[in-house]
Predict the structure.
Amino acid sequence: MKLDAKIPSGPLEQKWDKHRNELKLISPANKRKYEIIVVGTGLAGASAAASLAELGYYVKAFCFQDSPRRAHSIAAQGGINAAKNYQNDGDSVYRLFYDTIKGGDFRSREANVYRLAQLSLNIIDQCVAQGVPFAREYGGLLANRSFGGAQVSRTFYARGQTGQQLLLGAYQALSRQIAAGMVKMYPRTEMLDLVIVDGHAKGIIVRDLVTGKISSVAADAVILATGGYSNVFYLSTNAKGCNVSAIFRAYKKGACFANPCFTQIHPTCIPVSGEYQSKLTLMSESLRNDGRIWVPKKPGDKRRPQDIPEDERDYFLERKYPSYGNLAPRDISSRAIKEVCDEGRGVGPGGRGVYLDFSDAIKRLGKEKIAERYGNLFDMYEKITGENAYEQPMRIYPAPHYTMGGLWVDYNLMSNIPGLFVLGEANFSDHGANRLGASALMQGLADGYFIIPYTIGHYFATSKQARPSTDHPEFKKAEKDVENMIKRLLSVKGKRTAVSFHRELGKLMWDNVGMARSRQSLEYALKKIPEIRDEFWHNVIVSGEASTLNQDLENAIRIADFLEFAELLALDALEREESCGGHFRVEYQDNGETKRNDEQFAFVSAWEYQGPDKKPVLHKEPLVYEFVQMSTRSYK
Amino acid sequence: MNLTLKVWRQKDGNSRGYLETIEARDIDPHMSFLEMLDVVNERLILEGKEPIAFDSDCREGICGTCSCMINGKPHGGFKGTTTCQLHMRHFKDGDVIVIEPWRSRAFPIIKDLIVDRTALDRIIQAGGYISVNTGSAPEANSIPVPKDVAEAAMDAAACIGCGACVAACKNASAMLFVAAKVSHLNLLPQGKPEKDRRVRNMIAQMDKEGFGNCTNVGSCEAACPKEVSLEFIAKMNRDYAVALLKGEPRKIKSGGAS
């Protein structure tokens, strides 16, 4: 199989315009003949569903939550980047492009990232028009803050709830189309398989989470906007329900999975407090604008933070990366934190934590100003830890947060299966080996509002594949497969809960495929994962029945997929014998900094499924840099 | 610590519900309330019993999925706190905790502690948006919004749509939820063109869904995990009165297409 990224020719800044002019159109009268399935209603899914319905397509939208407004985009705190240059600080589309591609450690496509930077301008316009209450200056114009990996202030924000407000904007646009009859919304409905007819993605199999009913849905195209897979680590900043199932089922039907080993560990999360813990809570990166990160210079220093004098503190990010300081990118900051904790200088229970200290900022700006900027985050911190961060420093530690990898897509956001489009975190396209802060919201909305509406029409105009009936044997077969899988899960009746397997898998992945990976640790993980999976299928106990609301079953299905997917992630990490961005192989480093190998690894790894217990085939899409030079990332 | 839970169990919308007594043993005070339920559920599963069905997702107080009346109060009744953010350090050894679903005719019970809140989605669909198609937006800074207006709109927009206001209200009114969205959009210049239409349609839908009316008691504000202010209800009532005084919107003449 040859993967063709379909990057348009011509100068970088003209590629998207040129491409748009060349894409074929569907006339308004014909649009209403097409039906589109959208799975997931986060920023990418909701914005796509709304925009496509506005154009006149008929959309069926699915989410497993009880309302589309609850998708996990809602939890994004800090902000959204856009190259508006409102601050007159030298920002431009090119700079946002360059920062993003450099932040991704030169493992993403130039053309995609440039388009993303261009579209960032339209996104802010669109969201403001929808009524997103972004922060404002006294003159009534939009305010900005700075974020990690950038030396300009280009981040737009709505307090610490930017994701919530952007998602509500998209949800409201979606609601308007539901009212107009252009979108049929299916909440509490989970996709369990993709259906391919004559080589094209033409439908999905879903389970109604209230009645347990399995049914088929046919359409002219399928869009997956189902988010990332950080929950493969069990503990992550993702919501409990976030899962890999939709994209993993598509992978098993032939869609290539790209760069699964590119996972992002976010530096500033509240540390783990016990075995029972169900998730980790992020403390927004924006806190690093005013908070200073430090640990005691002496290992094992048990004094209270306020009793440690200034000259016995190590502000290690400021020391190691003076030009970016506390705003060094996420992958670099996370590793630096791990390093000081490994040296025994970590703070708090178990020594897995560092201080994020606001006392200087409070002295400089006053408590009120800090409360205005981050009040809700300080409140959240206090609720969880019982500590007041105005009076003593926060304790933070890295946690899995975002996954850059995902299904492979071309420049049109179409996977290698015609008619299957993948948007937002679920695809792999724009962030390379590390995503910069405030860029996920930007990408989700660029994909949904401004890319898919153009590219999907071209697919319809050129493919001319009729929409099948759900009586087609492929649908019947897929329904049967799903029903059999559910029956099998319920019939094991073993002695361990599904979540206990998830915890075991998560710990294995965090310890061996987490922040530091080695050939040895990866080989160990690859040996252990099939063992856990095998025990799962022989010893899991899933309560209840298939034909009712059954949360234990929903969870077990997702965990079964994680248990297979984890192996692919570890395999990709093993094969990528270099360090780049969030992927750190201890064998390939320069004094703790990542050491890329551009000669051998400047490619996208796209894995093709070959069947159960067979090694997937690796396809390599070379990354060609025509316009920027691949350089060593330096934030020093 | 060890606790006694009295949990509402109900197989589905058509079955009768009852309070079941379940012991929660060895609970760590650092656990969140939902983590405590996770621990209880794991034990129930291993004992071959049906685990307690409850809604939750983000577990950091922003998605609005979690619910529950805890000892008769939505989300447990702690200031600005959702159930997922409530920690067990607020309880003590030997406590009896009563856990029930949201109570409102407009929120039918699906199972145990899970209710159907799609009525709130339908209220948004009736007018809780600004009609702007993708691509037709003007340059962002061409619409200045005074800082205090933007802040007030944000205060209202902070609503997470959990339904605690409805659960707290003796009339099961959704006025705080509706007022939050009406105020968020009606305060902003972008939302003004549809101001009257929005408030009329959203209130009409609210009534149709079977929510009760507001009698200004204020328990909604006290229960709101995002501390959305009662003042927005007053603001909505003003907008509604103005919209009613203006009367039916002008009929649009048909024709004109060439």
